[in-house]
Specification:
The chain has 392 residues and is mainly alpha-helical. It contains 13 helices and 2 strands. Belongs to the TerC family.
């Protein structure tokens, strides 16, 4: 396509779009620079921290700017060209984003050494697995509210943006808390162990639905969607559309998953930069991955078991780390416990995380137990859909 640079040949609407796009990218660059400054201060004492662990501050700022620009470009692409991506398009984008994450980890490995390189890969894989689980919940939410397929990309982008904002807030808070109080690792570890158990029970969805109903019970909601609008007019009355319920539910889901994911990755690395970039890469391509995984939701039946195991493993690792740096007076007289087995290496953590995901995937797709569980899940999904249609 030929690009005409003469201003008088550009339609006013297009010029406005270009102007808006430039401001979006410029604002994203400034936001990334401010974020880098926040993550750089204060430095973490005695631990790998931003700008002090072999990763130069210049590299961190450039990386954050580039990653935020990529996310902003993806957002602009969705708003300018809302459509249902083909399997080929979704597969290409997902492959590109995964390739970028692998290359970025290689850059960190090359610049800062194998320790931080392994921490990035372990953190990214963990966050990616948790994001896939989050994505399955998004699929359920879309089906429950019967969101038209052509508007699902916009809902997904909203979910990804909210997830990124919440995780950025929790990362900054988590880094500051860890800096001041090392005993917080006991709390993080216990929380992850509780989350791992709760993951197996799978009860959060009903609790979340009840909370959303309470929050939106007083809102005048229209029966039908009006495109992707949040407000509409029916018989002269201004009403909220069901899209409001979808956004509130997605936001609540993001909040719950942020509570799980941030303590998990701080159990693998203490670098706020690694934590944030691993989360960005875990969120990249989720919009396209959504359309690839829709048919696999009832097939990956053992994924939640793998995630439960990973969260429990990281929870134990956090408790071991807390014991290794113990300052709590009523535990060993306030002295650290110096046992070699308390120090679980990042390399071992990476192998455990990868192994759990691979085993869960193989068992889900190819084992007799997985096929039987998938068939039961499919039958349950069909029955639920029929029941939902009956109520509608």
């Amino acid at each position: 396509m030929n690009v005409n640079t003469r201003t008088n040949d550009v339609p006013p609407g297009a010029a406005a779009d270009q102007h808006y796009g430039c401001h979006e990218i410029s604002g994203t660059v400034q936001a990334a620079e401010r974020l880098a400054a926040i993550l750089t201060y204060p430095p973490t004492k005695g631990r790998s921290s931003v700008g002090t662990s072999g990763i130069s501050l210049q590299f961190e700022i450039i990386a954050l700017v580039v990653l935020c620009v990529i996310l902003a470009a993806d957002l602009l692409y969705v708003t300018k060209r809302p459509h249902i991506p083909s399997m080929k398009e979704a597969g290409i984008f997902v492959s590109i984003y995964i390739g970028l994450a692998i290359a970025f980890g290689g850059l960190i490995w090359w610049q800062a050494g194998p320790q931080l390189g392994q921490e990035f890969y372990a953190g990214w894989i963990t966050e990616y697995a948790l994001s896939v689980d989050n994505l399955f919940v998004f699929i359920i939410i879309m089906a429950r509210f019967s969101v038209p397929r052509k508007y699902q990309q916009e809902v997904l982008m909203f979910g990804i943006i909210i997830a990124l904002i919440l995780r950025a807030i929790f990362i900054v808070l988590g880094a500051a808390i860890i800096e001041q109080w090392s005993w917080v690792f006991y709390i993080f570890g216990a929380f992850l162990l509780w989350t791992a158990w709760n993951q197996l029970k799978d009860e959060d969805e009903d609790e979340e639905s009840g909370l959303v109903s309470k929050l939106t019970s007083k809102l005048p909601i229209s029966k039908d969607f009006d495109g992707a609008k949040l407000r509409t007019v029916v018989d002269g009355k201004k009403l909220f559309t069901p899209m409001v319920l979808v956004f509130v539910t997605i936001g609540m889901t993001d909040l719950l998953f942020a509570f799980d994911s941030i303590p998990a990755i701080f159990g693998l690395t203490k670098s706020a930069f690694i934590v944030f970039t691993a989360n960005i890469f875990a969120l990249m391509g989720l919009r396209q991955l959504y359309f690839l995984l829709g048919g696999l939701m009832n097939r990956l039946v053992f994924l939640k078991h793998a995630l439960s195991f990973i969260l429990a493993f990281i929870g134990v690792k956090l408790v071991f780390h807390a014991l290794h740096e113990n300052q709590v007076p009523f535990i060993n007289g306030g002295e650290p416990l110096h046992y070699a087995w308390l120090d679980i290496s990042v390399g071992l953590s990476l192998l455990v995380i990868l192994g759990a995901i691979v085993i869960a995937t193989v068992l889900s797709l190819w084992s007799p137990w997985g096929k039987r569980a998938a068939a039961n899940a499919e039958a349950t999904a069909v029955a639920d859909a029929a029941e939902h249609a009956k109520h509608d």
